[in-house]
Amino acid sequence: MLKGKTALVTGSTSGIGLGIAKALAQQGANIVLNGFGDAQGPKHEIEALGVEVDYHGADMSCPADIEAMMAFAAQRFGRVDILVNNAGIQHVARVEHFPPERWDAVIAINLSSAFHATRLALPAMQAANAGKGWGRIINVASVHGLVASAEKAAYVAAKHGLVGLTKVTALENATTGVTCNAICPGWVLTPLVQKQVDAKAQALHLSNAEATKLLLGEKEPSLQFTTPEELGALAVFFCSPAADNVRGVAWNMDGGWAAQ
Ligand code: NAD
């Protein structure tokens, strides 16, 4: 379905981003990976799916790096057809104890990076398909883009902001073939969440299994993690012709979290 298209997924060396990159590659899209840590493993995994893959190590907190990454992708593949703004970090502390530099980092990586990548990707998307436009922008927000939790001020503010950016981008392109939507996962067992399980286990003297059960039980009625594969399938739907008129939604996949 996506053969000949190119998808750039930020923060795709692990977790949800890697799951979405694989799902898009399974549909035939060429992939630009980004993120820290080992890029060779993910690159080889995706190459094995029979598509072309490249990697750019832009630090998503740095607008100049994002510009370099977008220029690299355009030069390497001609155009970015699908942009998945996924890179994200977390910091947990009450507002009065929240380190200002952590606030700035969360806002830069979880929100401003999506603005920069989007503004740079849009002109080519708008010009595609003989000027009628074709493009998909998928923002990986969170259930925390819809509801709040204590001690996550920067994350909740950034994710609510990302849902707002999603709606504006969708509206500004509503008469074109460029759509923009957000995905709002509940708990997904990735390194980002394992750190929170570890913190709970340590603070309450619990085993990993007990801390995991407690974490899920506090918020997620299904008591189950959403998987990167399930989120990848939702991203594939947003890229399909069936989703041509899905615009500006914030679609939660959260085991019922936001329904409470
Ligand atoms: P993860 O820690 O497994 O992956 C994060 C990715 O972002 C990694 O590839 C990492 O290298 C990259 N990254 C971090 N800082 C970066 C930077 N400055 N520049 C470039 N890349 C950077 O986390 P994840 O759980 O897969 O999270 C992915 C996205 O999903 C995040 O936006 C997160 O907020 C969101 N999310 C996660 C959950 C969850 O339960 N795990 C729930 C809702 C939303």
TrEMBL record:
<dbReference type="InterPro" id="IPR057326">
    <property type="entry name" value="KR_dom"/>
</dbReference>
<comment type="similarity">
    <text>Belongs to the short-chain dehydrogenases/reductases (SDR) family.</text>
</comment>
<dbReference type="GO" id="GO:0032787">
    <property type="term" value="P:monocarboxylic acid metabolic process"/>
</dbReference>
<dbReference type="InterPro" id="IPR050259">
    <property type="entry name" value="SDR"/>
</dbReference>
<dbReference type="InterPro" id="IPR002347">
    <property type="entry name" value="SDR_fam"/>
</dbReference>
<dbReference type="Pfam" id="PF00106">
    <property type="entry name" value="adh_short"/>
</dbReference>
<dbReference type="InterPro" id="IPR011294">
    <property type="entry name" value="3-OHbutyrate_DH"/>
</dbReference>
<dbReference type="GO" id="GO:0003858">
    <property type="term" value="F:3-hydroxybutyrate dehydrogenase activity"/>
</dbReference>
<keyword id="KW-0560">Oxidoreductase</keyword>
<dbReference type="InterPro" id="IPR036291">
    <property type="entry name" value="NAD(P)-bd_dom_sf"/>
</dbReference>
<protein>
    <submittedName>
        <fullName>3-hydroxybutyrate dehydrogenase</fullName>
        <ecNumber>1.1.1.30</ecNumber>
    </submittedName>
</protein>
<dbReference type="InterPro" id="IPR020904">
    <property type="entry name" value="Sc_DH/Rdtase_CS"/>
</dbReference>
<feature type="domain" description="Ketoreductase">
    <location>
        <begin position="5"/>
        <end position="177"/>
    </location>
</feature>
